[in-house]
Amino acid sequence: MPPLDVDATVMANRRLSRDYNVLTLSAAEIGTRTRAGQFVMVRPTGMTETLLRRPFSVFEIVRDARGAPIAITILNKRAGRTTNRLYEAEPGDRIACLGPLGRPFTAVSAPSEAWMVAGGVGLAPFATLAEALAAAGTPTTLFYGARSGQELFHLDFFDRLGVTLVLATEDGSRGERGRVTQPLDRALASRAPGSTMIYACGPEPMLAAVAEVAGRHQQPCEVSVERTMGCGMGGCYSCVIRVRHGAEAARFVRSCISGPVFDGAEIVWD
Amino acid sequence: MARDLSVRIGSLELPNPLIAASGCFGYGLEYDEVVDLSALGGVCVKGLFMTEREGHPPPRIVETPAGMINAIGLQGIGVHRFVREKLPLLRERGARVFVNVCGTTVDEYVEVSKVLSQAAGVSALELNISCPNIKEGGIQFGCSLMGTSAVVSAVRKATHLPIIPKLTPNVTDVASFARAAEDAGADAVSLVNTFLAMAIDVETRRPTITNVLGGLSGPAIRPIAVRMVWECAQDVKIPIIGMGGITNARDTLEFLLAGATAVQIGTANFVDPFVWSKVLAGLEDYLERHGIDRLSDLIGAFDPTPPTAVHA
Description:
The structure holds two protein chains of two kinds. Chain A is of the alpha/beta class. Chain A folds into two domains: 4-101, Translation factors (Elongation Factor Tu (Ef-tu), domain 3), CATH 2.40.30; 113-225, Nucleotide-binding domain of ferredoxin-NADP reductase (FNR) module (Rossmann fold, 3-Layer(aba) Sandwich). Chain A has helices at residues 28-33, 81-88, 126-136, 155-160, 181-188, 204-216, and strands spanning 4-15, 20-25, 39-44, 54-57, 60-63, 69-77, 94-101, 113-119, 140-146, 164-169, 176-177, 196-201, 221-224, 240-243, 251-254, 261-263. In chain A, the strands form three sheets. In chain A, strands 4-3-7-1-2-6-5 form a seven-stranded antiparallel β-sheet. Chain A starts with a strand and ends in a 7-residue tail after the last strand. By secondary structure, chain B is α/β, with parallel strands linked by helices. Helices cover 32% and strands 21% of the residues of chain B. In chain B, helix 2 (106-118) runs parallel beside helix 4, helix 4 (145-158) runs parallel beside helix 5 and helix 7 packs across helix 9 (275-290). Chain B is globular, with a radius of gyration of 19 Å.
């Protein structure tokens, strides 16, 4: 289905911390079409300081009492001009959303287990994935790492869906101190090869580490990458990442249309 | 009454003057779901060499005020795969296909042009003698009058298709290059390619893109591009395809008035892939408001009479 360009209204802005917020956007039509792992290209309408859109995973699909999508949300972290503007957005502001775009996650079902690994703002694609997995009855765990306990968000949401939580923080203020890949590695030691689908989203060094851990334990792994992106449609060739299929030579592919979700074993990390 | 938006580039009749700019529209098929490719004046596909090219390592773009700098490095599938895998589908969709032809040597431009001339479904060849992002070829030819003449006259002998050298703005007098192209047998010229540019990350004191240098595009360059189109229009008789930061009908009209017969839209398509129908509607509206039947009547219709002073 083709992507839509929706001039959405900001319905709510929940500021989660000094850096993070969740924007609710009236893009019901995009919500209806979105599959977990897909993204939208976003631009505050009328913003003159910047030109290009920015990619955001669809964080949640907001539904009415009957389950029909009425909005989407995006999880935003302040990093530059557009993300600052999105942090400061007020209800009623307009934000252009182009999407859904990109290749979604492959949701597995029992007897396979699903283990999601999120680092920081890399939590973004996992709310919709957790819902899809819960609907399929797949046993699901979220390994979630952040700088501190104050930057671990939405834990209740995952808890309500029956997702097992394994937390890690860099400062040790909540969960295990250190990287989230440590508890992941230990837990995988007791899993039979091929029994556990690993999904990961976060900083690239974390994704490379997760792909390595998954490979060592002979588990399948899908990673969602974020590269500097121009258009989100395959037009500009900016967001390339090096990928190797089987015995073929590694080559640059566009993460907007061949990804953002890739087989973790196929990515050639920088 | 329906207004006539059609324009002619030599023997080519286009239903409207909007052409997707090379390097900004993939091979066209990426936009198949959102744009009726046959409704565009033309689709200029990504630059092609004889063989596949990997391009530069990312990051390849950085946003700058009212524009962006790119150094993609002409990643591409090569002319043979294009002819096999993409061209039949573009043909099926009724697209008027312009192919951006690249080369590291004059011979390579000739070879790529020959392959495309033997394939069915190519409307015109745009000769890329202006990409600022590759080490060999490209802009080396476009920055020398002799190089420009050499590429154009060699390709002229090798093809029956219309040839359109794409000129770089990174020269002192772009009109002299348009003349050299015309004298060497070009059917039209397109301009401008991007301006060689650079942006530094002051926090890290390092480059913002891997290639350090790249090409600046977007609204930031538009007034310079309009000036260059106007200069060329006074110097050559062949049609000019103008480009540089066009985002809407007003910008399109500015280029047409300056003397462009058609335009290319690039960066604006990144921001809004639905831009095409909006520009066409804006052009229709302009003709309606001004009581003009044919858009082509506006080509070169710039009136240099000084503006009436407005005191605020």
